[in-house]
Write a structure and sequence with these properties.
Length: 580
């Protein structure tokens, strides 16, 4: 009771910490008028002045107010965007090596420019880590305009670029990259024979975007560099032919552990078929000499019975590509171990690639702990604050929103079976769709997405399904999920990092609709018309109640529930969230 009273009077420790940073924000704001009158050349010259001050013994904290005021002014001139005061607080939190929890739509990408610029002035390099290649490219191009204006270089590391391009990207003042690329480059560097062949510089400072996804969800994911072993592709094909002759009564399935075991009758039948194929030594399948055959048989059974095409994996351009069960994304380049991937390749009749042996490995958790200074941002970190502190010694700071949140979070609704639940969900979506209210539906698996899609088709509701098969257009679809009448089904937050704006996303529509129109008065008029159209549509969407976020079930973690909720109600917009 006393704790509650103290909190009511003095605010929580988080509130007090944020309040303490407002003094620095006041200093930054006090410099705005002085910096606004500088011409472009003088503003660009600030970077060299800061470098000289650091060389003379000042610290980054000493130059922080001026550096942040400089970035804000550069952003106004280059991007037409002025950082809010809460973004300044976010920038200070990132610079201090902490995690900034900022709601969706509060402008995390613009916030990071403050800490990036300040820390890049030293010349030791800053890494900005994103969850996919698209965001790395987009953010580097978008924010690189501010850095370029202020005389800093920006690099981007994505798959399939040459060694010299990688080295140049890491030599840049600010480098955008995915966690996978950073980790693999570190492993490859450690397998090289000379320092000159390495592409990375010594670690300095990293800002991890969607920090919960990378440092918690994928923390234990091992990155592995492997080399080929002996080719046994013929054996996989022969064992696959054996498995096709077995019936459902010949084996037992354990759905939970995804294991398949032969029954006694099944074992006898398999022994006879293997003998006939000349694959068995002696007459007993479980003799020591047949260990390899038993292993292959187990994996072939598992591949045929437990692993389903278009759910666990897809076949694309003659390759078996794993689908992540959590995100529904294609995991290009990742392979199942212990010969399971080869067994699936044999099942699908595609080229069987040889098994591999591990040459180098590291987990994301161990990789990111090597940075002397690490910080991150996300819409949801508070629920994992204990884990961040325990493993990475990172504090989580909740940054207040620029405008008060207007979203209504309704109570959960319960149904006694899946049929009833999905029937009710489809009906609710149809009602919202008839009003013109945009709906974003969150599901936990691709299976559930497909099932809901069938229900919506019966109701005659036009919708988009986001999962592994539409990876390329993911950001485009999510960006327009706030338009009138749109219904978007996303598996586990597909399209994270893309802002859902009511009435539609101007940047994407500009690129899609006016890309080929030449510069000139006609284009300017078309841009003005597009802006007016989006503003009119936004007013209609607000009248219909804003974005409706609907979840088909609770996720394993409350944090993922909060992420989904947070897609609605950005920048003070109205919205609604409901879990079924």
């Amino acid at each position: 009771m006393l704790g509650g009273l103290a909190k009511a009077i003095f605010g929580s420790s988080n509130d007090r910490y944020v309040k303490s940073m407002m003094k620095i924000v006041d200093q930054i704001n006090a410099l705005e008028a002085e910096i606004a009158v500088m011409d472009d050349d003088r503003l660009k010259g600030q970077t060299q002045i800061f470098r000289d001050r650091l060389a003379a013994g000042e610290t980054l904290d000493d130059i922080l107010p001026e550096a942040f005021a400089t970035v804000r002014e550069a952003s106004k001139r280059v991007m037409g965007m002025r950082h809010f005061d809460v973004q300044m607080v976010g920038g200070i939190v990132l610079h201090r090596g902490e995690i900034a929890e900022m709601r969706t739509g509060e402008g995390k990408t613009l916030t990071e420019t403050l800490a990036c610029y300040l820390n890049a002035i030293e010349g030791k390099g800053v890494h900005v880590v994103t969850v996919n290649d698209y965001l790395a490219r987009r953010d580097a191009e978008w924010m690189g305009r501010i850095y370029g204006f202020l005389g800093l270089t920006t690099g981007v590391v994505v798959p399939n670029i040459q060694e010299h391009e990688r080295r140049a990207a890491y030599e840049s003042d600010i480098t955008y990259a995915t966690n996978n690329e950073l980790g693999f480059d570190y492993l490859r560097d450690n397998m090289k024979y000379e320092r000159a062949q390495m592409v990375q510089r010594p670690f300095n400072f990293a800002i991890v975007d969607e920090v919960d996804s990378i440092l918690v969800d994928e923390a234990r994911t091992p990155l592995i560099i492997s080399g080929p072993t002996d080719d046994k592709s013929e054996l996989y094909m022969l064992v696959q032919a054996v498995v096709l002759q077995l019936d459902e009564g010949d084996y037992d399935k354990d759905e939970k552990s995804r294991n398949v075991t032969l029954t006694e009758d099944g074992t006898e039948k398999a022994e006879r078929i293997l003998e006939g194929a000349g694959l068995l030594t002696g007459s007993n399948l479980y003799d020591y000499e047949n260990t390899l055959v038993v292993h292959h048989l187990d994996q072939a059974l598992k591949a045929n019975v437990m692993f389903k095409r278009d759910i666990d994996y897809i076949v694309k351009e003659g390759k078996v590509i794993i689908i992540d069960e959590f995100t529904g994304r294609m995991m290009d380049g990742r392979r199942w171990s212990n010969g399971l991937h080869q067994a699936v390749e044999a099942k699908e009749g595609v080229e069987i690639e040889p098994e591999n042996q591990t040459l180098a490995t590291i987990t994301f958790q161990n990789y990111f702990r090597m940075y002397p200074k690490l910080s991150g941002m996300t819409g949801t970190a508070a629920t994992e604050a204990g884990e961040f502190h325990e493993i990475y010694k990172l504090n989580v700071v909740e940054i207040p929103t620029n405008l008060p949140v207007q979203r209504i979070d309704e109570d959960d609704q319960f149904y006694k079976n899946t049929q009833d639940k999905f029937g009710a969900i489809a009906k609710t979506i149809k009602e919202a769709n008839d009003r013109g209210q945009p709906v974003l539906v969150g599901t936990v698996s691709i299976e559930k997405s497909e099932l809901l899609s069938e229900f919506l088709e019966k109701e005659g509701v036009k919708h988009s399904v986001l999962n592994a098969r539409f990876h390329e257009s993911e950001a485009r679809i999510v960006a327009q999920a706030g338009r009138m009448d749109s219904v978007t089904i996303a598996t586990n937050m597909a399209g994270r990092g893309t802002d859902i704006q009511l009435g539609g996303n101007f940047e994407f529509r500009l690129e899609d609709e006016l890309r080929d129109m030449p510069e000139g008065q006609e284009r300017e008029a078309a841009i003005d018309a597009l802006k007016a159209e989006i503003a009119a549509e936004k007013a209609k969407v607000i009248e219909a109640g804003g974005l409706f976020v609907l979840a088909t079930e609770r996720h394993e973690s409350r944090r993922i529930d909060n992420q989904l909720r947070g897609r609605s109600g950005r920048q003070g917009d109205p919205g609604l969230s409901r879990f079924y």
